[in-house]
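Morning, I've got a small favour to ask if you have a moment. I've been staring at a protein lately and its backbone has me curious. You're getting the sequence in one-letter code plus the fold written as tokens. I've dropped the whole record in just underneath, so have a look:
=====
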Amino acid sequence: MATTIASRSGRLLALLLILPGAFVAVAQAEPILKIRTTEFTRFNEAVEMQSSTSYNARGMAPLYEITNRVIDLFVDENPIPDGYITVKEGAIAPGPNVSDNNWGPLLKQYWAILLVAALCIIMIALMPIMGLCLCCCRCFGGCGGRSQPFDKKHDTCRRAILGFLLICSTSALVFGVVVAFVTNSYMQHGVENITTSARHGVHDTRLYLQTTSAHIDHVLNKNYQELNNDLKQLLHDASDNIIKRLEEESKAEKLTTLYEFVEKLPGIKGSLEKMKQLTSELRITASQLNDGLRGVKRELLTSLNKCGTQECIKVMDDYKIGRLNVNGIDYNSLPDLSQIIESVKQLTDSSLGSAIHQGVDQMNELKSTLRQTVLQNIPKVQAASDSTGKAIKDVSNMLTSRLNNVADTLGNNSYKHLDTADEYIEQYSIYRYYAGLGISSVLLLILMCLVFGLLCGICGKRPDGYGDDCCNKGAGGRFLIFSVAIIFLTFSVILAVALASFLVGTLTRRAACDSLRDPANDQIINYLDQFVDLNRLYADLRAQAERSRTKLQVSEQVEPVHIGEVIVACQQNETIYKVLKLNNFIDIRTIRDFPEHYGITRELAALKEKIKIQSVQILTPEATEDIRALQESKLNDFDVDKFTDNLTFNITEYNLNEIADKLREVANRVPSGKEMNDIKVNLKNQALHLSSYQTNLVDPMIASTNELIKLSTTLDTSLKFGEKSFSAAIDKFLTQIKDAEEYINKYGKTFVQNVTEELVSGFNNQIHSYITLVIESTEGDIGLCGPVYNVYESVIVASCNRIVDPFNGFWAGVVWCLLLFLPSIIFGVKLSTLYQKSDPYPGPMVESEYLYDAYTERDNIPLASGPKNKRRKKQDRRRESRDRREIYYEEGSPSHSRDPRYNDMAPKNWDGAPPRYQNPPMAPPAAEYERPPPYYYPGAPSEHE
């Protein structure tokens, strides 16, 4: 139990020993000086960029997406296999696979493109040959060049099926033709506006560099000037701040207050004499007023009683004329200030002022020493600060000049090339546009021929040889044959253009567009990075920075720079310092060494060592005795309450002017009469006396009372200093001055050192806060790269989306049309043959026979029927199908009324002999040609056996 108590007592003792130190630490941790932190102005310059990444595909986006997917099928993620290219600094050399003639991996990767190119070349070579063969075949009557006038049994079905298939292919051709026209126009628009986008990009890049330069100048120059001005003001006020804080902490300012009071004793004496004078004047004036009011009161009572009217009685009652006096004020009760004035005079003539002045001189000497010490070291600190500012300004000028030079170089070297590009585009791009327009027009012509052929073939009538319509089936067949001819004539040329466009578009999209859109992981960007080799350039800049006079050092470790990483960092809106890794030749963090390097830290330490104070004696014993005499003087007897309690501003109960006005009003209403006239005159005389008393006596007494109360109140405040009495205030002054002297001599040196330490620390903190601002602004705020990436994206949109995508869409539309031309040739040739037939299907009998109809002017004359077995089959089929010859040849039947000269006059029975020809009765002379009548030749006898 005893052990437990002892343990607890030890812990309590240790805690009591620790607590004072903790309180002291807390007390010392509180700031003594309130150093104002510099408010740096923020850089806020709004800029308007011109580059735009907005893009409207105007309905072609699905086509572009499909085209890009098709290109992805042909091109690998790494377009160049390893071992074929070796890229070094500024040079491209063949790889080992080229030296060893090892083309296997390259062929394996691009077999699809090679296959497509080979097929296209074969088609380019074969299509003219195929067209020539088709032409020759038709010229010799084959391939649908000549056909029977009658439809075969299934020709109607063939026409419908082939027409439907050709409609489908023609409808699909519409898409390809539209794509060709639209993409050609979009591509031309993109080509014409590429320089405008480039100019916007150059303008925005220059504006970005200029804004970044202005931001650097703002932070490194303007903000430092703001800091330097505040630091100079801080140094200028340093001595006053130290002295002020020392006086406040030691309460030494009470000596100054006491000295100021002693200096005011002559003024206090004057105030007391003024109060004494005012008191005497009030007594005299009050006696005069009292005597005058008694005479007026006597006369008024006599006259008002004689008047006897109701108004006279009312005036006498309302204003209490019977008690008209000085309101019962006894001015003789006001205190006599003669002794207090004499005491103040004695103090003024004594050595009190000089004794206190010696203490003030001691404090002034202490202040002067501190001020002189600080002033001697201020120029050195300011010089070190100015040197630091000059070094920072040199860095700012170096960075801004380089950025401005880059901006000027970019503008000077870009705009002239863009002007040249405009001239070339204006001069030559129109030819590419017309070439694309010509190809699109050819496709449109083929499409129109197919459409007209289908329209005439489907909607037109059969050709009959007599006044055919312009849009009959025969015209439709000719349109189709014309479209086939155009296809054969232009197919190879269009396919060659499409193949070249496919290869160029694929290469451009993969080498440029895809690389620019994913620069971090792209093989081509990697090769470009090796070719340009930014690290070699940075090594040169690093060497220049090491040789330069700027005090910003380079970083210890060299960070490699890659183009892809630069673009990705720019996309993430990093600062130009991080994007370009400028720490490789300017490490902004080394600015922390500037205060040490330029001597700011050294001069502040010297200032802290030189600021010291010596022991002082504020009050001598003689000065203390003189102050005690002041404490026991008659000033302690001054009582302000005797003035405020015995004085009032209401000298009379009623305003005498008001009474006078009422008396004049009553006098004017007194009735006429000899005696009443005397009363009227007396009332007016007394009213005149009252007005005179108010002006000459009452109003001056009110002014004197006001001044006397004000002087007494002010004097009371000056004497008591917020204490209960003058004696207590002087006693407190003595105590505080003694404490101040003891504090200065005992703790003053430590306090001043602490204040100086805080002043120096505040100065250093201001500088380091600025340095931190510079580092944070450089690494996180200056030159945010988002606008440059917006320029980068706008260039991609202007070149890839507005030129490359329409270019690839163009060859895609052309290839689509070429693929549809192949079936269209077959369908067109077949349908053109079917559309040329003038007669419908006549039936199986006529289909197997060769007829010559003179009345219908048939040109195809079958000379023999088919073999016997075929005829037998046709006869069997005749039973199943209706013989429609009567429909088509009813004009040739005897039952039909015809012109007599077309009647068959040949004998019906030939007796086995050949038919004989005879002219009809009404026939023309034999000299005129007459077509022979039709005859029927059943064929050779062997065919009927």
In short: The first strand starts at residue 85 and ends at 88. The two ends are 152 Å apart (CA to CA). The beta strands are 85-88, 91-94.
